[in-house]
Design brief:
The protein is mainly α. Helix content is 51%, strand content 3%.
Length: 149
C-alpha cells in the first residue's frame, strides 16, 4: 500500500482540490472569512453553483410551462402553478449560499495576498466585476499566509 497524504486542515487552502473536495469544503467553511482558498476550491465551487442554478432554472421553466394558461380576453399568459415552486427553490438556494460564497471570495482574495475588502470593487459599475474576475484568476501568493487564522 502507498501512503496517500492527508488533505490539509480546513484552516489551510487545498491546492489541486477536486470537484467533490471543493464542494465539501465550501459547506464546511460556511462563514469562515479568515484563511485562504485555492483557485481550484474557488472555481470548482462556481462550476457546482452554475450546474445547480441551471437545474433550478429548468425546473422553474418546466413549472411555468406546465399548466400555463392564456386569458382569452386579454391574451395575457399566466405561468403554471409549479412556477412558484421553482422560484421558491431558487430563492432558498440563493439564501443558503450568499454568506459562504462571500466568505469563499474573501478567502480567495486572501490567497492572492489581498484584503477581502477588495470584494467591494465589484460594486464599481461596468469594470468592477472584471477587476474581481482578474483578481480571482491570479496565482496564489505565499505572502497571503498572513491572512491564515
Amino acid at each position: 500500500m502507498t501512503n496517500v497524504p492527508a488533505s490539509p486542515s480546513l484552516s489551510q487552502p487545498l491546492y489541486g482540490a477536486s470537484f467533490g473536495q471543493a464542494f465539501t469544503r465550501f459547506w464546511k467553511k460556511y462563514a469562515t472569512f479568515s484563511g485562504r482558498a485555492s483557485r481550484s476550491e474557488f472555481w470548482w465551487w462556481y462550476l457546482a453553483n452554475i450546474i445547480i442554478v441551471t437545474v433550478l432554472y429548468i425546473i422553474t421553466a418546466i413549472g411555468g410551462f406546465a399548466g400555463a394558461s392564456i386569458d382569452s380576453t386579454t391574451g395575457a399568459s399566466a405561468p403554471g402553478p409549479l412556477f412558484g415552486v421553482g422560484i421558491a427553490l431558487l430563492v432558498i438556494w440563493w439564501l443558503a449560499i450568499i454568506v459562504p460564497t462571500l466568505a469563499l471570495s474573501w478567502r480567495r482574495l486572501h490567497d492572492t495576498n489581498r484584503s477581502g475588502l477588495f470584494w467591494f470593487l465589484g460594486f464599481i459599475p461596468v469594470v468592477g466585476g472584471i477587476i474581481l474576475l482578474v483578481l480571482f484568476v491570479l496565482d496564489s501568493d505565499p505572502a497571503g499566509a498572513r491572512f491564515d487564522a
